Amino acid sequence: MTEYDAFKELLESDDQEQLTPKQQQIVQAAIEMFSEKGYASTSTSEIAKRAGVAEGTIFRHYKTKKDLLLAIVSPVITKLAVPFIAQSFVKQVFKEGEHEDFEELLRTILVNRFEFAKKNVPLLKIVLQEVAFHPELQDRYKEVFRAEVLPHFERFISHYQEQGLIKDYPTETVLRLVITTVIGFLVTRFIIMPDGEWDDEAEIDRTIDYILNGLQV
Amino acid sequence: MTEYDAFKELLESDDQEQLTPKQQQIVQAAIEMFSEKGYASTSTSEIAKRAGVAEGTIFRHYKTKKDLLLAIVSPVITKLAVPFIAQSFVKQVFKEGEHEDFEELLRTILVNRFEFAKKNVPLLKIVLQEVAFHPELQDRYKEVFRAEVLPHFERFISHYQEQGLIKDYPTETVLRLVITTVIGFLVTRFIIMPDGEWDDEAEIDRTIDYILNGLQV
Amino acid sequence: MTEYDAFKELLESDDQEQLTPKQQQIVQAAIEMFSEKGYASTSTSEIAKRAGVAEGTIFRHYKTKKDLLLAIVSPVITKLAVPFIAQSFVKQVFKEGEHEDFEELLRTILVNRFEFAKKNVPLLKIVLQEVAFHPELQDRYKEVFRAEVLPHFERFISHYQEQGLIKDYPTETVLRLVITTVIGFLVTRFIIMPDGEWDDEAEIDRTIDYILNGLQV
Amino acid sequence: MTEYDAFKELLESDDQEQLTPKQQQIVQAAIEMFSEKGYASTSTSEIAKRAGVAEGTIFRHYKTKKDLLLAIVSPVITKLAVPFIAQSFVKQVFKEGEHEDFEELLRTILVNRFEFAKKNVPLLKIVLQEVAFHPELQDRYKEVFRAEVLPHFERFISHYQEQGLIKDYPTETVLRLVITTVIGFLVTRFIIMPDGEWDDEAEIDRTIDYILNGLQV
DNA sequence: TATGAATGAGTCTTCATTCAT
DNA sequence: AATGAATGAAGACTCATTCAT
Questions:
Q1: pLDDT attached to residue C71
Q2: Nearest nucleotide from residue D60 CA, by C1' atom
Q3: Residue B186 CA distance to nucleotide E7 C1' (Å)
Q4: pTM assigned to the model
Q5: What is the CATH number for D81?
Q6: Which of A72, A110, B13, D14 is deepest in the core (most CB within 10 A)?
Q7: Residue C112 is part of which domain span?
Q8: C-alpha–C-alpha distance, residues C157 and B71, integer Å
């Protein structure tokens, strides 16, 4: 398996493929309802009804309602960091010089996360809502971020700061500004105003431009 | 009463001053619990307990649990738009030339919203969480935004675009980028990492800089 | 005061005249609501609202909700027996020979109770409904019946049986048949089908006829 | 199945036979308590306790407390009209000449309803009490009466009036007098004075006699 | 494995009643 | 006398979870 395949697999791996049909129905129903009404306001009986299974069946697969939530949300948190996890991705940037310039890197990440968000709106809604109330999720999030995202990002930033491409702000500030802008874009695009008329290509370009200019020396 | 006084009053008016003591205790307890555990996961009996009142007392003042939420959240939504509502503010910008340049305007808004956020973290958490699940809140939000914020913002943007201070992006794009960056800052500062070590002054400066550069022609 | 006056007074005495205005409002509201929704389904706060008084005011005049019910219902039970209580009534029948025949007696009672029912539909509804669930009311009812109604009635029945005007059934049977027919008429007329088109005079005549024929030897 | 069997089945069909054991316990407990204390004054927790089930179990079988009431009362209302619904009954009267005379018809109905009442005192109490406060029940009652009872009754009355057996009163008046007398008897016998010493056979005879004489030309 | 009846703790809300003003 | 805020027990109903089938 080439590194590219690993990367692709990570990105595309459908966790649900390994689930029994009933389980898939349960997870699907739970995703829909959690994202519509929130975890706390969704009852297991509603999930069972929408999934077309008996109430007891949910608890055969997931010990508690919270387990079901974690089973759904945990892999999403992992996937949020996927582009930074993939070895091939990291190597490409510095070794192969493909992403030599900052813009290319930004675009890769943004487009990639854009596509990811596009396909996973309900899941992202759930993460956004529930992370606030479940310390386990926060921990998991922080861990992934600290272990997978931060190191690479810091390397990128130092690298481009050394090259004089971006301002000499503290890493965390650069990080905050960039991530904030990216997430702000995706949240606006897919969650707050998903029904607006969007010229996605142009907006992506402008957002990249905004970040680049915003950070340039 | 001078215009400044009106402005200040708007900003500082404490809705809770008109409430009976028991009501204040209830509202206070509800704010704490809603922001900690979320509206749906907070029981009225818990609120009563923390407020030190009988459960029935809650319902004497608020017909339903949801009424209590709305009583708490609605004024916050209004206040979010306060700097744009205040007449004195708008006039100053264009008439008195005080905020002649874009930077000044941005700083006024950012500092002002920063102070507001600082004093209202739990309330903002509640708004952020609950807006997603309560259409009434969404409607109220949209209305305030469309009526109070949008028109002024559009005037600012056109004004500065004509002066060649900011890029010729569609209004909505400029709006999105600015608001996203501001909110992203405040959310990171007060909600995601409130316990980090922050050099607030520097961060505000950098954020303003980022926006200015990001949008400049 | 003549005996007739006493009779009249008994029939017309308005218990509510001695009540304070607030009390009258309370009683009036309670009568309306008890008869519409039943005692158990009517809340004191509803009564207070409809009466236009504070909730506490009810309890200043009536120690408990049940006291209010009893204050309303007790006098009605007494009044149900009024024609038999009035001395003048009893005397008239036998002394003055006015009601010499059975038909005259029946008509007097029926017309009199008809007028009483007509003016007191809500009160009668309440009695009918609540007697079943409040032993105090049952006791009060039985006492009045045994003390005031039964003796006179028995005298009437014996009297007419001796005269060969009515069948030689046991007193209780005659009583049951007569009372049942009278109450059945009034309940049908005023409670079950108050909105039907009634030729009251004719129905009264037919009902009397039915009883007379039904009992005649 | 002969017509008689169908008739018998209608009369005896026990709706509770199709219920699960828990459901039977619930219904049984509810019947007892509703008839003792009234629907509004009976709490679901009391029913659960007396039924020996968890409170939640009630709501698994009956969506609301009112549903439980309707499930109990609705079939009773239907059964009240059963003797008129049974085809065999109607046919017998006119075709087979069995009930040729009015007395026979009255006796059949009265004895039959007497036995029904005897076996269903608590249910009849509930109907009598709750019909007043639940429009659904009133509607259901009126419908059954209009569709099943009235037409047959009118035929009987016309038939006997043509034969000169009963007075030429309006149908509704005859109906009222007969029904009133029958119900009055049953209510007195089973609800008001169930503990008195009753010579049922004699009372039935006298009641029939009373009706016959009362209506005869 | 899947079911769904059963549970009883817990939910929001209402209630009759009290009491300081 | 009248008020109405406050109470906390009780009400109908829901919930996540269990378990016998």
A1: 95
A2: E5
A3: 47
A4: 0.90
A5: 1.10.357.10
A6: A72
A7: 3-215
A8: 72
